[in-house]
Amino acid sequence: MIEESDRLASSEARETALECVEAGIEAGHPRTVVREAVALDGTDLRIADATYDLSEYEEVVVLGGGNAAAHVAAALERELGDRIDRGVVVTDDPVATERVTVREGDHPMPSERGADGTRKLLSAADAADGDTFVLATITGGGSALMAAPAGRVSLAALQDTTDALLASGADIHEINAVRKHLSALKGGRLARRAAPATVVSLVFCDVVGNDLSAIASGPLVPDESTFADALAVLDRYGIDAPDAVRTRLERGAAGDIDETPAPGDPAFDAVSTHVVADGMTVLRAARSAAAERGYETLVLSSRVRGESREAATTHVAVAEEVRATETPVSPPAVVLSGGETTVTVRGDGTGGPNQEFATSAALDLRDDGPDADARGRIAVAAVDTDGIDGATDAAGALVDGTTVADPEAAREALADNDAYPYLDARDALIRTGATGTNLNDLRVLVVP
Q1: Which of 42, 208, 243, 444 could be 303's S-S partner, Cβ–Cβ 3.0 to 4.6 Å?
Q2: 39 by DSSP, 3-state: which?
Q3: Is the pLDDT of residue 371 over 80?
Q4: Average pLDDT for residues 38-55, to the nearest whole number?
Q5: Same-domain pairing of 267 and 235
């Protein structure tokens, strides 16, 4: 899975970190998750702890989107076979399917092909009726991939607004409050389009705290945010949104446009949701891989958020405490965390949250020195489980005390948000390609 892993694994600690990364990503892959969570016995479809009788429906349709959507669709085809009649999913990681149409889009920025695929998805939802059983696959990345500009908002206006929000330091909930109110699909509007069909949603969660309304901007769950909330986000971060965007939000806030469906809306009467994989899925597998190698393990949290470089300093402090005082676990130990940190973009460089985390961690670890005993060096791996950190071809990076020999250059890279070339020049980037899943970030700190 990890390209050039032999080169990266130059110490036992680094090798352990990479093995934990691979174990976590594999555990979150749809082929693994669907095999464990979904089973068809005659006409009874089991999903997690619920059972649905498919004999009550004339057709079974698969709809959805996100980085892992095509892999979920393929896994569902393996489990249900010809019981699936049709479907449409939008993704940036296509795989071969027999019954479900896979339409390609782009991530993290919405694109015209994604918008076209989403129009096909909405048409398929509109065609559903009371005799339709919809299996919905909702995964991380769905907000950008399922682009469906509403009203007079153009795709270009949506792209400009999304770009500004991603660079502003706004968190995912704030970003989604805006995106939901600029979309014909998000914020529960897909549920409204699919009604009165029975909709069962399989969610691969990539947001902190498993907030269903934030995953792919919540196309099948109630939305408590409002047009006024969306306007407040633009103002809070000084976003100079295109006129069409601000006009739509202002009209909505004034009551001229219907709000997204809120809790209690009849659109959700026949909708049920199952979170079949999330950040803890990844962390549990990584923890097991570390334990099998003889390490004590500590999961800090699956909900780490905030500025990436600051979170790195805190993580390194925990690893240093483990090494110095054997608190809260004794070395050899592996400290793990998940969640989604953010980057406030002030420069014009290339990178992503996990690359900034790794660069900051490497700065804090540099006192280990290039001549330190390799057996004692702390190793830190930070990756986005979808294999795409920021808008780069790297999933993240693997660093230790030898990575930074020139602290000033590392600080300059962080100041310009240019971690990618800095880490690339030091052979520290982890590349996996698209992994087939998206379950948030994974950070592994190995303390020999």
Answers
A1: 208
A2: strand
A3: no
A4: 97
A5: yes
User: Domain check: are 207 and 320 in the same one?
Assistant: no
Q: How confident is the model at residue 373 (pLDDT cuts 50, 70, 90)?
A: low
Burial (Cβ within 10 Å: 0-12, 13-18, ≥19) of residue 164: buried
This model's pTM is above 0.85? yes
Q: What is the DSSP letter of 185?
A: S
211 & 294 share domain: no
> What's the domain count of the chain?
2
CB 133 within 8 Å of CB 57: yes
Cα 172 to Cα 212: distance, rounded to the nearest angstrom:
12
Same domain, 105 and 226: yes
10 and 82 assigned to the same domain? no
Question: Which tens digit of pLDDT belongs to each residue from 240-263?
Answer: 999 999 999 999 999 999 999 999
Task: Give the pair of three-digit tokens for residue 154.
Answer: 């153009």
Structure token pair of residue 384: 């986005």
Give the CA angle between residues 207, 126, 67 to the nearest 5°: 30
Residue 384 predicted with pLDDT over 70: yes
Greater model confidence, 391 or 298? 298
Output the pLDDT for position 375. Answer: 60
What are the tokens at 178?
């805006």
**Of the candidates 252, 278, 304, which is a domain's last residue?**
278
Q: Are residues 296 and 265 in the same domain?
A: no
Residue 116 lies in domain:
28-278
> What pLDDT is stored for residue 208 in this prediction?
83
Residue 412, domain CATH: 3.40.1480.10
Token pair of 127 as six digits: 């065609």
Q: Which residues touch 34 (CB under 8 Å, ≥6 apart)?
A: 72, 75, 76, 78, 79, 202, 276
